[in-house]
UniProtKB/TrEMBL annotation, chain A:
Pfam families: BPD_transp_1 (PF00528), BPD_transp_1_N (PF19300). The keyword Kinase does not apply. Belongs to the binding-protein-dependent transport system permease family. GO terms for cellular component: plasma membrane. The chain crosses the membrane at residues 12-31, 96-118, 130-154, 174-192, 228-254, 274-300. Keywords: Cell membrane, Membrane, Transmembrane, Transmembrane helix, Transport. This is Dipeptide transport system permease protein DppB. It is found in: Cell membrane. One of its GO terms (biological process) is transmembrane transport. InterPro entries: BPD_transp_1_N (IPR045621), MetI-like (IPR000515), MetI-like_sf (IPR035906). Its main location: membrane. The gene is dppB_3.
From TrEMBL, chain B:
Residues 1-11 have a biased composition (Basic and acidic residues). The gene is gsiD_3. The lineage of its organism: Bacteria, Bacillati, Actinomycetota, Actinomycetes, Kitasatosporales. One of its GO terms (biological process) is transmembrane transport. It comes from Streptomyces smaragdinus. It is found in: Cell membrane. Belongs to the binding-protein-dependent transport system permease family. It is a multi-pass membrane protein. InterPro entries: BP-dependent_transpt_permease, MetI-like, MetI-like_sf, OppC_N. Residues 1-37 are annotated as: Disordered. Pfam families: BPD_transp_1, OppC_N. Residues 140-330 form the ABC transmembrane type-1 domain. One of its GO terms (cellular component) is plasma membrane. Keywords: Cell membrane, Membrane, Transmembrane, Transmembrane helix, Transport. This is Glutathione transport system permease protein GsiD.
UniProtKB/TrEMBL annotation, chain C:
It comes from Streptomyces smaragdinus. The keyword Transport applies. GO terms for molecular function: ATP binding; ATP hydrolysis activity. The lineage of its organism: Bacteria, Bacillati, Actinomycetota, Actinomycetes, Kitasatosporales. It is found in: Cell membrane. This is Oligopeptide transport ATP-binding protein OppD. Its main location: membrane. It holds the Pfam family oligo_HPY. GO terms for biological process: peptide transport. Keywords: ATP-binding, Cell membrane, Membrane, Nucleotide-binding, Transport. GO terms for cellular component: plasma membrane. Residues 7-256 form the ABC transporter domain.
Length: 307, 342, 337
């Protein structure tokens, strides 16, 4: 078990470097942070060169990357377009988005797994067919369309949820945005759970469990679910990345000032420190979530743990 | 066609679903990015041989009978028929929009801004006073072409790179796996925002390029897995022992039997790429005027949608139906190709 | 004395998308306590499906029992309520499957899976169940049982895993065990060990054993009587001795002839020509007629009933013997075709 964890941690290092470097490359090599610095005005060449030198932009890209990463690990993320340190933006944005994401994962896991198990056990029946169709429709409606639709229905029409979230973003105001954020992933979770459950239900060891004379409930809970949830848990971990991406859209619709909002502002204003800073943290969270999932995976599946 | 008493040839290794094509230990970052992947992987691990065909099957006949059965199933599947008709219609509209549209999408009159539906303008007018019906019809072209070209690009690149990695294994396989992990570490929407925000052009090509760039690893992973599975078949070993060249084995024996999961994933991906393009355009970094796209129109309609919901609903509905059509098609094809569901 | 298990005229069909397959079509057999019945046949002959119907673990849908009786210890299992029937499974009758690796739950320790029998059927505590599991593992001679009770199925070798399956079947001292190809997935050397273990345990406990196999070699040593199945029917039922001495059905003859024999080394091995019939379209008359060397026109039109095989004087044999062949007499005396 210990060796497994260490191996997974080591495997994460190249992924971390690769992902952050890729983003760094896009922002610093494809864009031009200096022109962005001046907005619409055109800087005179001498000033531009001075700024380039000051921010190490005249060095080779890999050196810039190393310098940047070095600073990040000392807590210096640079300054945002409005002159505020990026760290301060993060301190405000992350708690909101983490609340939103946790709530979304909660819905996704509880509702998705429940629906998936129910329809997987009743494969081919009415409930299964309707769940399948519903998930297809949900997957097909892009999050931003779904966001406006639900905002209109719940916020404007029935007036049971706030149309936009206040600056403090309390949990109850985040329920609707979290549902919007979770819906597509929820549909995928349902479908994956369904496939997994109905495949495992035909596995030999389930036949054995029936032949042992175990009660149906015990077969489902102890034998079927445990095996079926292994791929679902993995998917939930992977999907955290998508959830964070989706937050950009959801936060825009509901006017939530979280990570998605800040990132979006940073990207539109081409503020390199904001973008790279937030993305770096995002990649770290993604990797940590996956490590957690791997551990859970190992707990669920002895073939991994004891290999 | 499944023999009811065959001794359960379709036993599912629960691990197979966790997304490893090869013998190495599964770990979550190596798992496919979405369920299409998961489902396709259960496909690639399935046993394609049918008990009805006695053991004389060679790779070619085996692949052919698989498609034959699938085609017979598809023709009877209403979901397939509906989605196929929709797609034919959408492709037609994107090729010849003027046949369906009632006029030019650029023919706008501010006097009509936000007006609702009327006789010759069934969808009403948008903020600029353009006819929403015409704009929606002309918007199909951008969405469908981004979807089709991006899928073709990602599928070709992914199949070649993933297929070679699966076939030859070795160091390239290891490198590819690491590269794939890196791409999975970046949320696709976020990558798109960053990448496209620095590209000034608003045409479809940068968007396609970006989707290919971030979409191929998903296909490559599927291709790798299904090539590894196909490679282990007896007839491939036989062909090898008879001295067939690598290229001949790959094209004649491995590819026909490995291509099914790739097609399924690619079809479903096509739908999600269209949704991705619309989302990027909605966020202002994808397609930009003068290219007409549903995502953009939804974005401009959004601030006003409480007063004039029709401006948002029509393009949104067409967008959703288009995505739905491709995802349903992929779903139907997968069901038809998956012998376990027979 | 009534038999431990009597299957009478059992009918099972599979409702598939391509039509209805009659997987079991009027099977009758019986097993006494302490007796071993071997059920022989190719895959698709309905031997496993019959066993699954007896155990009540048929995949349904698509499989349905559509007729017949399964009388176990005087009670018709098909008329029992679901709950009562569940309680007989594992307790009074148990099953051993072919592939122990896939038949054992990969994510639960073998100790848990063994102990589960005692917890569910006997209400034992966790601790007692574990102790019983160790006991069982020792009984099937798994070395270092105490140390391995918390191991998982994938950590055992194939032979050891099959021993665990056997231990699981034996757990509650059932009166009947059905072993479905228990040694097919194992190496030849391990096969004999597992078979010997099974036979020995049967002698100790006096349980009835139904041994499903396609391997005639396995049968000769352990079985008391044999039922040969073809296309969902029993084509010949007889004692082991009788069947090996002189089969009364051409299909049985074919099976016996296709066993490799040392004394016939160098000669071409006999193979029954043709393929088993498609169960969606079983040929009219005798299902075996397209492959039968003795087939005549009557075989293509009239389905043979199970004839009582008699001695030359026309007296019934003891033990009784049956053959579903119009020309069983010719076959019995091996007259040339």
């Amino acid at each position: 078990m210990g060796r497994y964890v260490i191996r997974r941690l080591l495997q994460m290092i190249p992924v971390f470097i690769g992902s952050t470097f890729l983003i760094f490359l896009m922002v610093y090599a494809l864009g031009d942070p200096v022109t962005a610095f001046f907005g619409d005005r055109r800087p005179d060449p001498a000033t531009a060169a001075a700024i380039r030198h000051e921010y190490n932009l005249d060095k080779p890209l890999w050196q810039q990357y190393l310098i940047y990463m070095g600073k990040i690990f000392t807590g210096d993320f640079g300054t945002a377009f409005n002159g505020e340190p990026v760290v301060d933006l993060m301190a405000r944005a992350w708690p909101i988005t983490i609340r939103l994401a946790l709530l979304a994962v909660f819905f996704q896991a509880i509702v998705g797994i429940t629906l998936g198990v129910l329809s997987g056990l009743r494969r081919g029946r009415a409930l299964d067919t309707s769940v399948l169709l519903a998930t297809l429709v949900v997957i097909s409606i892009p999050t931003f369309v779904m966001g406006y639709l639900l905002q209109y229905l719940f916020g404007v029409n029935w007036n049971i949820a706030p149309v936009s979230v206040s600056a403090a973003a309390p949990l109850d105001e985040l329920i609707l945005p979290a549902i919007v954020l979770a819906l597509v992933s929820l549909a995928y979770t349902t479908r994956l759970t369904r496939t997994s459950v109905s495949e495992n239900a035909r596995a030999d060891y389930i036949r054995t469990a029936v032949a042992k004379g175990l009660p149906g409930r015990r077969i489902t809970v102890r034998h079927l679910l445990r095996n079926s949830l292994i791929p679902v848990v993995t998917f939930l971990g992977i999907d955290i990345g998508n959830l964070m991406g989706g937050a950009i859209v959801t936060e825009r619709i509901f006017n939530i000032q979280g990570v998605g909002y800040q990132l979006y502002q940073g990207i539109l204003r081409q503020n390199a420190p904001t973008v790279v800073g937030f993305v770096t943290i995002l990649v770290i969270i993604f990797l940590l979530a996956n490590l957690l999932v791997d551990l859970l995976y190992a707990v669920l599946d002895p073939r991994i743990r004891l290999a | 066609m499944r023999d009811p008493h065959s001794e359960r040839p379709d036993d599912v290794d629960p691990l197979a679903n966790a997304g490893t094509g090869g013998p190495e230990l599964p770990n979550s970052t190596e798992v496919g990015i979405d369920v299409a992947t998961e489902e396709a992987e259960s496909l690639e691990n399935a046993d394609y041989t049918h008990p009805g065909d006695p053991g004389t099957a060679t790779s070619a006949t085996e692949a052919r009978s698989l498609w034959g059965h699938a085609w017979r199933d598809l023709r009877r599947n209403p979901i397939f028929l509906v989605s196929a008709l929709l797609i034919v219609f959408l492709v037609f509209v994107s090729l010849w929009p003027s046949v369906v549209a009632g006029g030019s999408p650029y023919d706008c009159d501010l006097a009509h801004s936000r007006e609702g539906a009327s006789g010759s303008h069934p969808f009403g007018f948008d903020l600029q006073g353009c006819d929403v019906y015409n704009r929606t019809v002309y918007g199909a072209r951008a969405s469908v072409s981004v979807g089709v070209f991006a899928t073709l690009g990602a599928a070709l690149l992914g199949t070649v790179l993933g297929g070679l990695a699966g076939y030859f294994g070795g160091w390239w396989d290891g490198v590819l796996s690491r590269i794939t992990e890196i791409f999975f570490g970046i949320p696709i929407l976020l990558g798109g925002l960053v990448f496209l925000s620095v590209v000034p052009s608003g045409s479809i090509w940068p968007v396609i390029g970006f989707i290919v760039l971030l979409g191929w690893p998903q296909i490559a992973r599927i291709a790798r897995g299904s090539v590894i599975t196909a490679k282990q078949n007896d007839y491939v070993q036989a062909a090898r022992s008879l001295g067939a060249s690598n290229s001949r084995i790959m094209l004649r024996h491995v590819l026909p039997n490995a291509v099914a999961p790739i097609i399924v994933v690619a079809t479903i991906a096509l739908g999600t790429y269209i949704a991705l393009e619309a989302t990027l355009s909605y966020l202002g970094v994808g397609l930009k005027p003068p290219t007409i796209s549903w995502g953009q129109d939804i974005s401009t309609a959004a601030p006003q949608y409480r007063n004039a919901p029709h401006m948002l609903l029509w393009p949104a509905a067409w967008l959703s139906v288009t995505v739905l059509a491709f995802i349903m098609l992929g779903d139907a094809v997968r069901d038809a190709l998956d012998p376990k569901l027979r | 004395m009534a038999a431990l298990l009597e299957v009478r005229d059992l009918q099972v069909e599979f409702r598939t998308r391509d039509g209805i397959a009659k997987a079991v079509n009027g099977v009758t057999y019986s097993v006494d306590a302490g007796e071993t019945l071997a059920v022989l046949g190719e895959s698709g002959s309905g031997k496993s499906v019959t066993a699954q119907a007896v155990m009540g673990i048929l995949d349904s849908p698509p499989g349905f029992v559509t007729g017949g009786e399964i009388v176990f210890q005087g009670k018709d299992l098909l008329k029992m309520g679901a709950e009562e029937r569940r309680k007989t499974r594992g307790d009074k009758m148990a099953m051993i499957f072919q592939d122990a690796l896939s038949s054992l739950n990969p994510v639960l320790s073998v100790g848990y899976q063994l102990g589960e029998m005692f917890r569910v059927h006997r209400g034992a505590s966790k601790k007692d169940a574990r102790a019983k599991a160790v006991e069982l593992m020792e009984r099937v001679r798994i070395p270092a049982a105490k140390a391995r009770v918390d191991d998982y199925p994938h950590q055992f070798s194939g032979g050891m895993r099959q021993r665990i399956m056997i231990a699981m079947a034996l757990a509650l001292d059932p009166d009947l065990i059905i072993a479905d190809e228990p040694t097919t997935a194992l190496d030849v050397t391990v096969q004999a060990q597992v078979m010997d273990l099974l036979a020995e345990l049967q002698r100790e406990t006096n349980m009835g054993l139904i041994l499903i196999t396609h391997d005639l070699g396995v049968v000769a040593d352990v079985a008391d009587k044999i039922a040969v199945m073809y296309a969902g029917r029993i084509v010949e039922a007889a004692s082991v001795h009788d069947i090996y001495r002189a089969p009364a059905h051409p299909y049985t003859r074919g099976l016996l002839d296709s066993i490799p024999r040392l004394d016939l080394k160098g000669q071409e091995l006999y193979a029954i020509k043709g393929l088993p019939p498609n169960l969606l379209a079983i040929p009219p008359g005798c299902a075996f007629n397209p492959r039968c060397p003795r087939a005549r026109s009557v075989c293509r039109t009239d389905r043979p009933p199970v004839y009582d095989v008699t001695d030359d004087a026309g007296r019934p044999l003891e033990p009784p013997r049956g053959s579903a062949c119009h020309f069983w007499k010719e076959q019995l005396h091996d007259r040339p075709v």
